[in-house]
Amino acid sequence: MTQSAELEQAPELIAAVDLGSNSFHMIICSVKDGQIKTIDRLKEMVRLASGLNEKNILDKVTQQRALACLERFGQRIQNFPDNNVRIVGTNTLRTAKNAEQFLAKAELALGYPIHIISGIEEARLIYQGVAHSLQSNANRRFVMDIGGGSTEYIIGTNTTPSQKESLRMGCVTVSNRFFTDGTISSSQFNKATIFVNQQLSSYKKLFNSHQWDEAIGASGSIRAIAKVITASQWSNDGITLQGLKKLKDHVLTCKHISEIQLPELDEERLPVFIGGLAILYATFQTLDIEQMSVSDGALREGLIYDYLGQISDHDVRSDTVNLLTTHYHTDTKQAESIKNTITNILAQSSSFLGAQTKLMTQYLTWAADLHEIGRNIAHSQYHKHGAYIIKHGDLAGFSQQDQTLLSTLISGHRRKIPTKKLAELHAPWNNSAIYMVIILRLAVLLHRNRSNTDLPEFKITLGTNKVSIEFPAGWLDNAPLTQADLNQETDYLAKAKFKLIVS
């Protein structure tokens, strides 16, 4: 947002939940005097990715296992205010074709909304968690996180990531694909590493060891490998290439994962251990990594720090919007006029809109900043071009649900109101976003002439399926274009089953 955000009081307790493709994690942190302390951790291996069939349908058995876990998580945070809980889903929930049906049940079990994030957003949050959790003097860090269904690679300096990639390969998917039923062989391990090398080949130059000063691993798979290598005395300096080779050679003496006997290796991790090892081993080879340290911080911690940024003076989503407005050369003066009118309408409508008014203000402000970015592509149908960019772009800080909402607002700010898309939005927006669209439409309409003249004071009333707007006597007679636009808007709103009354 271009307007300064009001600082909020940080909550005493914050919960972050990561619905990964292998494990579900939850951390609860206390916040005092700007310091964060983890006071509770919960983790369960759900192996969500194993429940995807060849058609990317999440099976019922896996869903039930996941829901049982979420009910336990939900009990722990049942008294937390909604704003104090951040829950994200990753690769499997990005991939599953029946994710929406599962999410409805999952949100009921948890009692809080779940946001699906892109692989690039996942990489950004992982880096935040690592950067805040690990003391390091390195100028440039390389961070790697092996999840159940994807692996993230990031390079950054201090708390700012500069390169981010998410590849669709994880410890669950690689284990299932190349080590069927737990069977181990040298040929299958070679096939697995070749597969990883193929996925990484396009990014070898971007992430090779010449591009950074220190390598850091940040996932359960990498931590498990580090523990085994250290306990086996194959390395006394984190994970090394030589240590990985010794671990690989040892594992390949086994014919089945059940035969793997290694110190500090939990039996629960056995089914996916070899997949994680293949990914890490191939990454070391491809990117010429000699040594990697391990961080306890990852996605969950990144969520905590990101949330604290949102309620303080640094919301990365506002930075993203500012970057987009610069990139697409938007008319910032026009956007400011529209935002002022939006603020006016919301102030007059707060009694009807209720507790959602504050959140609506945030999204409508972003929509006003971005509603014309499609003009950079083509003037005709520019609202559709802009909506496409927002829905399908990698927007730092935004979940997929956030981007869909913002995209729908932009697509609906002119011409036909997208009632079907509005009804398909994630709750609660499926019921209330129609009012946001109407507010944005009216604000844009009233500033269509891009005049430097201020609008007159007007009164507006929102109601169920009804909008009334009253201008000073005689003003509309001297604004024939606005009057014609409002007449047209009356027809558009009528098709959306809303009545617009203008006087």
How would you explain this protein's 3D organization?
The chain has 19 helices and 14 strands. It is of the alpha/beta class. The chain has 3 domains: 111 residues, Nucleotidyltransferase, domain 5; 160 residues, Exopolyphosphatase. Domain 2 (Nucleotidyltransferase, domain 5, 2-Layer Sandwich), CATH 3.30.420; 188 residues, Hypothetical protein af1432 (Orthogonal Bundle), CATH 1.10.3210.10. The strands form 3 sheets. A 6-stranded mixed sheet has the order 8-7-6-9-11-10, with helices on both faces. Helix 6 crosses helix 10. The longest helix is centred in the C-terminal third of the chain and has 22 residues.
Short note summarizing the structure:
The chain is an alpha/beta fold and 503 residues long. Helices cover 48% and strands 16% of the residues. The protein folds into three domains: 111 residues, 2-Layer Sandwich (Nucleotidyltransferase, domain 5), CATH 3.30.420; 160 residues, Exopolyphosphatase. Domain 2 (Nucleotidyltransferase, domain 5); 188 residues, Orthogonal Bundle (Hypothetical protein af1432), CATH 1.10.3210.
